[in-house]
Design a protein that fits this description.
- This protein is mostly helical.
- It has one domain.
- It contains 15 helices and no strands.
- The longest helix has 22 residues.
- The termini are close together.
- About 30% of the residues are buried.
Length: about 260
């Protein structure tokens, strides 16, 4: 019996989510934008995010990877489990997470998947970008998120609208960045900021006061060379605390399923 995967074996989405550095860039960008989102207070409600922002990152990654690399039924279970967790938070708070906030998160994952891969690897074709959109559209559809854009072109327009309407600098923004610095240390925090500058949209850079050009930009060629020589692990170890070594290495363990 041929296995049916949620994301087909040769999809560019598997290429994107099968590399630890790309995933880390995705979540560096999302960490910056999350801090500005008008619904960021929901991330503070359980108290887990400010206590362990990096731990929450790897927890979120595990769900995303379970979806991208699993058979269809297992991926649906992972999505349903994620939906159930959100429903539990809503019940505890006695309020509903707005649909636009769910869409914002989905839009971030689409956008930063594309941006991070293009920074670290190559430009994606329109067809490949559409493939990224379609995977996350199906996730959103399974989560019953309303008013999702039906195609990539419409998503691009809606993404710009969300960036204009749903971002603001708040006390949560300041606190989250304080927590990032606390958990990473000054040097690694500086690298995080430069990584975020590389991948975030201009609207996010403006809100956070980032420069237009990251100091890491000239080092990208060197980093890509280190990947070809299998030395990139050394650089990753410098970026994230050693207590997360196991989690970082695990991000590279999933490979494309064999063709049938």
């Amino acid at each position: 019996m041929v296995k049916e995967y949620f994301v087909h074996e040769h999809s560019v989405v598997r290429q994107i989510w099968g590399k630890s550095d790309t995933i880390l860039f995705i979540f560096a960008g999302a960490a910056a934008e999350f801090a500005l989102n008008k619904a960021v207070d929901w991330l503070y409600f359980t108290g887990r995010l400010p206590v362990d922002p990096l731990g929450r990152l790897f927890s979120t990654v595990s769900y995303a990877r379970a979806i991208v690399f699993s058979e269809k039924h297992a991926a649906h279970r992972a999505i349903d489990a994620m939906t159930k967790i959100h429903a539990g938070v809503e019940a505890d708070r006695g309020a509903k997470i707005p649909d636009w906030a769910y869409r914002d998160v989905l839009f971030m994952l689409i956008d930063y998947s594309i941006r991070s891969f293009e920074v670290l690897d190559r430009k994606l074709s329109v067809a490949e970008k559409t493939e990224v959109f379609n995977v996350f559209y199906r996730i959103g559809e399974r989560m019953r998120i309303r008013e999702l854009p039906l195609d990539f072109d419409t998503w691009e327009k809606k993404r710009q609208e969300h960036l204009l309407l749903d971002l603001r600098h708040s006390s949560y923004t300041k606190d989250l960045f304080r927590q990032y610095r606390k958990h990473l240390g000054a040097v690694r925090f500086g690298i995080l900021l430069e990584t975020q500058t590389l991948v975030v949209p201009s609207q996010v850079r403006a809100w956070l006061g980032f420069r237009k050009i990251s100091l890491l930009h000239p080092l990208l060629v060197l980093y890509k060379l280190s990947r070809s020589l299998k030395l990139d692990w050394i650089l990753k170890a410098l970026v994230l605390p050693s207590r997360y070594e196991k989690e970082i290495r695990a991000l590279d363990t999933v490979r494309l399923a064999p063709a049938h």
